[in-house]
Every structure is written in C-alpha cells, then in structure tokens.
Amino acid sequence: MKIINLLKKTKPRIFIHIGMNKTGTSALQSYLLSVKGDLLNSEILYPETGLIGSAHYSLSASLGFCNPSVDPTWIKEQKKLKKSFQSEINKKIDTVIISSEDFLLNKPISTVLDFFKGFDIKVIVYLRRHDHWWLSAYAQAVKMKHLPPWNQGPQGFINFNRRRNKSYGDYRHLVDRWAKAIGKTNVIVRPYEREQNQPDLKADFLRAIGEPELAEKLPRMETRDNASLPLASVQLMDIFQRIDVDPELHQKLLAHARTFGKGDNRLLKEIVNPQFLHKLVDSYEEDYAYIAREYLGRADGQLFYEPLPEQNPDWKAPRWPTQAEVAQEVLKVVMAQ
User: Fold this and answer.
1) Which of 8, 33, 96, 172 has the greatest CB tally within 10 Å of its CB?
2) CA 192 to CA 128: how far, in whole Å?
3) How far is the C-alpha of 87 from the C-alpha of 63, rounded, in Å?
4) How many domains does the chain have?
5) For residue 52, what are the β-bridge partners?
6) Hey, which residues does 191 pair with through a beta bridge?
7) What percentage of the chain's residues is helix, strand, coil (to nearest 5)?
8) Does residue 181 belong to any structural domain of this protein?
9) Local mean pLDDT, 10-residue blocks, the chain (337 residues)
10) What is the dihedral of CA 294, 295, 301, 302, to 10 degrees?
11) What pTM does this model have?
C-alpha cells in the first residue's frame, strides 16, 4: 500500500486526460477501461461515472464541454453525477483518471474546478506535430462531413479551418488556458511521437502520471490507430461528400469509396506539397519551443524529434479521379441497388 494512503486525510489526485484528438486517445481510453481492475488493485480508479463507451463523454458534456449537436442523453444533473463519483472513491483510492478529448473545447474551466473542488487536479495532454495532426484531421473530416465548406483536398481543409478559427489546433492557447486555471506545474504535456512514447502509449501515460512501476507490470498496449484508407479512397470520398444526393445513396457511395483503391500504398501526405507542410510546421515552431521550455523543461526548445519530410523540388501532385472515373464508380453503386 502506498505510504500516502496510510495517513491519508486528503482526497485523491485527479488526472484529466484531455487528448488531443488524433493522438491515440480512443485506443488509450479503451486500454484503460480494459485494465480497470488492475488499476484498481494499484489504488487507481478509472470511474464508471460519466462513461460513454470507454471515455468520460457524459461527464465532460455535463460540465459544459460539448458542442450544440451533442446527444442530450449525455448531459446529466451534476449533483447526481457527483454523488455517483463520490460513491466510487474509497479510502484506498490514491489516483483517479478521467479521459475525454472534449475537455479541449474552449469552455469555462470553472465548472471542472467546482465539480472536483478539494481534489488535487492535474491535466495531461498529448500533442502531435501539426503536419501529422492536420492531415489526420482532414482524413477524419472526409469521412464525416457532407457538403464541406472547404475546397477539395487537405490544403483546402487546412487553410479554411486556420482562417475560420485561429484557436483550432493552437496548442499554446490550450495549455496556457488550463495552466492559468490550475497552475503550470499541474499541466503535463507529452509529445505524441513514437520515438518519445516507448515502448507504447500506455507506458508513457502511466510514467507521466507518476506510475512507472505499473507501466512495467501491465500488458503492452496494442497499436490501434484508426485504419488509414488508401489515398485513392480518400480522394473519391472527398468527391462523393460534395454530391448532394439522397442520404441513403450518399451512404452507399461513401461505403463504396472505402473499398476503392485497394493496393494503393500511397500515403496521404503525398497529396500535399512538402513545401506546404514545411511552412505549416514552421508557422508553429515558436509555440513548440515555448511549450518545450515552459512545460517540459527543455532548454533547447525542441518539442518533436521526428525529421520533417524531405522537400522535393520535382514534386508533382498525385492525380485525382477524372470525371469519367467518378461517373463509372457512381454507376456501379446505382446499378447495384
């Protein structure tokens, strides 16, 4: 038993894992839920209160961290949630882990402080280099957004969202606003990068919250990044999302696009000019250096270690499907109905 629990009169530490999105968050949440019993044996609680699936989306939504389109059934009365949460904590619990990437939203943090009043609150966030983060966000948007307002392709998506909402993907704004609310020493920043998350994300997370021994004991976390679609599938899906058709036909077109381009081994980043990616990363370098110095104590200001993609002056954009090819794929779906 931990020494802190022999004399404990104070409440447990609470680590609020806020993502970011596209940093293995869903995989980590699933893992934490799967080893909930092992965590409990080590006096760590991954509470049932506020869980939707394997993440605490109901808790974050009930504290105001949600979009207008949130499922209304997720929002619970805070008094009932707090009573449920308190019932899960016994005198042996030393640490509580809450995980929801919705805590990234620019909402009042005061609701979180009120709900967990008296607890030692810490926030842990994983940050991904922006060339990877934006491309991953584009790939997700292509799957989800019908009739998108941005121009076709990842550059259109990135440029539109950077103009529309300057705080979107602004890591410095995110960590500083939490630091202002709970103190800089209570904000734990980890780069999401294979080289820096060895041997896996779970081990890095547990070390970050002060549980290095547990990181060695628990089973290894399987790599479970969202499966990447072939580049040709992403391109066709981007095109199909811009067609205003019957919803049922639209879903069939998207499902067909997922099967398109099998054997296409090209990476999504190949669709973007490497010079654009370099400029994109360069635009965030000042923030990276600030975060590395202020939150990781790195005097050299280096947040990410992976080399940037090579700049190729002879780069040519991969071709998109022609109108005739798109029409052919649409016909396949229509004729199959």
Assistant:
1) 96
2) 5
3) 19
4) 1
5) 55
6) 127
7) 50, 10, 40
8) yes
9) 49 94 94 96 97 98 96 96 94 94 96 96 98 95 96 96 90 97 98 95 97 93 69 95 95 94 84 93 97 98 92 87 95 89
10) -170
11) 0.91
